[in-house]
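hi!! sorry for the late reply, been swamped w classes. u asked for the two structures so here they r. pasted raw, havent cleaned anything up. first the sequence of the first protein and right below it the tokens
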Amino acid sequence: MRPPRGAPQLKRGPLGRGHAMAWGRLLLLVLCVAELSVRAEAQAPSTTHWCAEARPEEPLLRDAQGLANPDDAGWATSRAVFDIPLIPNAKIDVIRDEGLCRRSAVAYGDHMRSVADERWTDKPVLVLRVGDMYLVDDQRSRKGVDAYWTVLLFSKDWKVLYEYGGGS
């Protein structure tokens, strides 16, 4: 069967296939790959490289709740001595933003290199925002007599407001 007169004709390529058919297959392949990529991103877990996962019964979360509670005696003393602002009923957010976690990990590492060990390497951290401050913990174990851990409280401009921990 012949195409009607004046209808566009498919040109044949070197392999005898029409260019339109080859372009159609290429387009189909690109669309399939794009669809698989979108599905993979949608199914990817919410883990990140720099944001550590909270532990069961996360102690840093308890610390953040104490920081935001004006009646917490331990934090009241620290606020008075170290001039930490009281933010009653502050919203506490677990940070999952990769950029903010990386910024926190670098600030934490810089501080630890300056006070503990110059060979300290940056590692994933758990970051909690309490009002406009950040509690940062690299989640070393707090259990046992030999536990060595440090939590840093940063201001919104990444100045260390307070440091506490065990074994230091």
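now the second protein. again sequence first, tokens right under
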Amino acid sequence: MDIKPTKIITPSPAEPQPLVDSPEARSSYDPRLYADQSLVESFKHYPLMRFFGLSEDEKADDKINDKIKSIYNFSVHKAQSNDPNKFMRAIRFLEMEIGTPPLGTTRLDHISGLIEIENNMHDLENERRFKYGF
């Protein structure tokens, strides 16, 4: 048994065109509909928290947040981009370079310790250049 179409459907020229994001289109929107930019800023460390597998209690700890911020700043500087894919790759390469943490040390503590040493070395080199000119 062959099924034969009874009507051939062709697209009509009045079909709606896909929406395109443009400055002209955005200017017509109510600015109150935009997401708060500070909200976006507060979530910039979230990929790192997920990467290190932090629990909800650990995410609220100030010491851990300071470590996450220092790792974030270091990795953004190293990757020269605040794109999560790029700065996360920089952290992963750093983690592969320094190896697994010693027994009893978390990955977060291991990487943040190295970054603290790197920052101290950078500060000392800057101080040497400032004081002695080389």
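hope this helps!! also noticed smth abt the second:
Residues 40-132 form one domain.
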